[in-house]
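Hi team,

Below is the intake form for BTB domain-containing protein from Mycena chlorophos. Please confirm the fields before the structure is written into the shared record.

FORM ID: S-0412
PROTEIN: BTB domain-containing protein
ORGANISM: Mycena chlorophos
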Amino acid sequence: MSSDEQIPSTPTSLTNDSENDLVVVPVKDEKYYFDYGDCIFLVEGVLFKVSRFPFCRDADSGIANMFADAKGDTSEPIPLPQSSAEDFRALCWAMFALPDEMCDVGVSPGSVPVCQYLRIVDIAHKYLLTHYERWAWKMARKVENAIEDYLNTCTEDELEHMLDLGLRCQDSGSAPELLGLVEAAWVARAKSGAVSSSRALTVAEERGRRKLQGDIYWDLRDKLVSGPVVASLETGLSSFGLTETQLNRLLWGHAMLSQCFRSEKSKIKVNPLPRTSSCNNYHCQYGYYERQACSWQWTNAVGAIQSTREWITQTKQSYSSYACIVAYLEGMLQEWDKQYGQDAAVYFLGRLPAVDGVDKI
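The structure came back. Fields below:
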């Protein structure tokens, strides 16, 4: 279809009688179809007629290379089959917004929905438009907790899409925090029951995200050990909604961890409570709370290991006015992460094979 032909303004389907197929006639975008445009993009049946200049400012961008490699009639639309019209529309907004609109956005980044910025990050990364990609991420991060709030309310499909975007962006430096934010939000929502643990495990396995798998399995084990009673002889553990493979891994990891915790009990040592110059409490400085904490340690250290690091964090808050005890609990947290937190997936999924003689966990 040349630019001189009449383009319908609403979606239209025509029947090709010879083949009895439906042919969808593309429609103009309501906002980004400019008469002065010198190139046309076809995205999900929508035509965008715009200036090619912004797309070519970076000679290494994917779209600049499309123009360089194009042959034939330049009035023919350039198809972008792997993109959505909504994403391309967001990119056009970033490129063609009027100056006063950009000024308003610069003063108040939160006036634009954070998903708009994330759409730009996505499509700009796809076509190597690095300046727009980095700009969109910076704008999204300028709005406090905006990305976290979005990830805490979006659908599971969107979570999966954001995880894939985070994986694509982790090496480019454009959105270095995105992957961690998505995984943290997914774990938190799985813990609360807002999303499916099974879906999170499946996605993590397909993408090779062992730590995400380990965190989800760890939470399921906590629920198995100390959560509400949800199992019965009739229903088994079906309330967890896991596949057979996932359930087997959970039970295997639970058995392995239970054995490890039993062996840890015999290794516990009582160390003197560290004294800190920042502690102004008389009793803490002269050992009163140290004797209490030593007794407390013997009776509670195993319990702390058995009930995850959140228990230690909560206990630290209870002793927040005593610097010595807080420092001791900080050491406990570090030991927890060293022994269990970082390698939780190993208990459920097994060790990764050794590489060049080094055992990678």
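SUMMARY LINE: The first strand starts at residue 12 and ends at 16.

Thanks, M.
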